[in-house]
Amino acid sequence: MSSDNAPAPYQAIVEQVPDALIFADRDGLIRVWNQGAEAVFGFAADEVVGSSLDVIIPERLRAAHWAAYDRALETGRTRLGNAVRATRAIHKDGRKLYVDLSFGVITDANGKAVGAVAMG
C-alpha cells in the first residue's frame, strides 16, 4: 500500500479493510493498493504502485475503460454512480476475473478531480 501522506488511522483503515481498495491518479497510475487488492488480483503493492491500471484491465477492454475513466474525471461522476458492478479484470497469473466493484471520483478541497477509487 502506498499512502504515505495519510494520517495513521486512515492509513490503517485502507491497509486493513478486507475489500480490495485501489486509487489511481488522473493519469491512471496506481497510487493506493491495499491487502484486499493483493488478495483479489495477486499483485503485491510494490509490484503495481506507480504502474498503469492496465495491469488489471483486459487488453480488449482498455479503450472503453480509458474513455469512461477520462469522462468520469471530467464530469466528477461515474456513469452508474456508486452502484456495484461486475467488472472484468486480469489476475497476476493471467486468469480472467469477474470482480464486483464500485467506483468513485476523488476530489481535492477545491472540488477538482484528482483520481478515481475502486472498492469491492
Throw out a few tags for this protein:
Beta-Lactamase; alpha+beta; 5 strands; 5-stranded antiparallel sheet; 120 residues
Model description:
The chain is α+β, with helices and mostly antiparallel strands and 120 residues long. The chain has a single domain, classed as PAS domain (Beta-Lactamase, 2-Layer Sandwich). It has four helices and five strands, in the order H-E-E-H-H-H-E-E-E. A five-stranded antiparallel beta sheet has the order 2-1-5-4-3, with helices on one face.
The outline comes out as globular
CATH superfamily (homologous) name: PAS domain
Number of domains: 1
The top level CATH class name: Alpha Beta
Query: Helicity level, as a percent range?
Result: 25-40%
N-to-C span: 16 Å
**Structural class of the secondary elements?**
alpha+beta
Stretches with pLDDT under 50, minimum 5 residues: none
Question: What's a concise summary of this model?
Answer:
The protein is an alpha+beta fold and 120 residues long.
What is the topology?
Elements: H1 8-16, E1 21-25, E2 30-33, H2 35-41, H3 45-48, H4 62-75, E3 85-90, E4 96-107, E5 113-119
Antiparallel strand pairs: 1-2, 1-5, 3-4, 4-5
